[in-house]
């Protein structure tokens, strides 16, 4: 004996609106249940596919992401000394871990280092306010960088007036001026993001040794 299910008049009228020909309420309910199960099955399959896709993307990201090298302070110090030797401006000493001071003149060079970012094909530096806010006409800026081969190194040397102008173009965060260098697709050349007209190719120098 089939169970008796009592429904309200309003619900019965809704079922009746979905009837086809001489349909019975039972047939209408069965069709609605079939449709519901079919729909939820499709949603579940879609959700499973989405999860699988997300998992594949995540796994691909982990396998293709370049590992960031830990900062090597001693190596950076050696490279900054190499910048001083490459400039060949006479005897010098490295002070404050970042400033090269030449003894035969009043010239100083702020030397900041950036590793290469393969994911974004760019380099990034931050210049503290204690330097850029008091920039003098004898203060040069050397943007030291790890080359794309991640073995050799170069640096971009900006004259005192060029560095001062660049700072006016840079955004500031936490008191530091942010400088970005990257390859632009329109000409496949290196440009400072904040000063794209600057001739990077002309002023970039390879570190000796």
Helix vs. strand class: alpha+beta
Task: Provide the residue-averaged pLDDT.
Answer: 83
How many structural domains can be distinguished in the coordinates? 2
> What percentage of the residues does DSSP assign to strands (E)?
25-35%
The CATH architecture of the largest domain can be named as 3-Layer(aba) Sandwich
Instruction: Assign the CATH class of the largest domain.
Output: Alpha Beta
Helicity range of the residues? 25-40%
How many helices in DSSP terms? 6
* Shape by Cα distribution: rod-shaped
By DSSP, the count of extended strands is 10
Largest sheet: 6 strands, mixed
Measured between the Cα atoms of the first and last residue, the distance is 96 Å
Describe the protein in words.
- This protein has six helices and ten strands, in the order αααββββαββαβββαβ.
- With 209 residues, it is of the alpha+beta class.
- The longest helix is centred in the N-terminal third of the chain and has 40 residues, at 25-64.
- Residues 60-66 have low confidence and may be disordered.
- The chain is rod-shaped and about 105 Å long.
- The protein has a six-stranded mixed β-sheet with strand order 1-2-3-5-6-10.
- A hairpin with a 3-residue loop joins strand 1 (92-95) and strand 2.
- It folds into two domains: 9-64; 73-206, Trna Endonuclease, Chain: A, domain 1, CATH 3.40.1350.
């Amino acid at each position: 004996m089939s169970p008796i299910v009592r429904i309200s008049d309003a619900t019965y009228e809704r079922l009746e609106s979905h009837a086809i020909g001489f349909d019975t309420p039972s047939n209408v309910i069965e069709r609605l249940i079939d449709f519901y199960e079919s729909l939820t099955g499709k949603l579940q399959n879609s959700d499973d596919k989405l999860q699988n896709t997300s998992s594949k993307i995540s796994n691909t990201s982990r396998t293709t992401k370049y590992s960031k090298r830990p900062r090597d302070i001693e190596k950076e110090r050696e490279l900054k000394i190499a910048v001083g030797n490459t400039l060949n401006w006479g005897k010098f000493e490295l002070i404050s871990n970042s400033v090269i001071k030449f003894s035969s003149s009043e010239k100083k060079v702020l030397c900041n280092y950036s590793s290469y970012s393969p994911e974004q094909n760019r380099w990034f530096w931050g210049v503290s306010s204690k330097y850029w806010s008091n920039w003098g006409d004898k203060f040069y800026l050397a943007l030291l960088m790890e080359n794309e081969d991640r073995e050799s190194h170069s640096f971009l040397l900006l004259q005192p007036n060029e560095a001062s102008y660049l700072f006016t173009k840079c955004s500031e965060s936490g008191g530091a001026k942010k400088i970005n260098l990257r390859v632009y697709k329109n000409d496949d050349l290196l440009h400072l993001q904040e000063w794209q007209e600057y001739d990077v190719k002309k002023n970039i120098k390879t570190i000796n040794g």
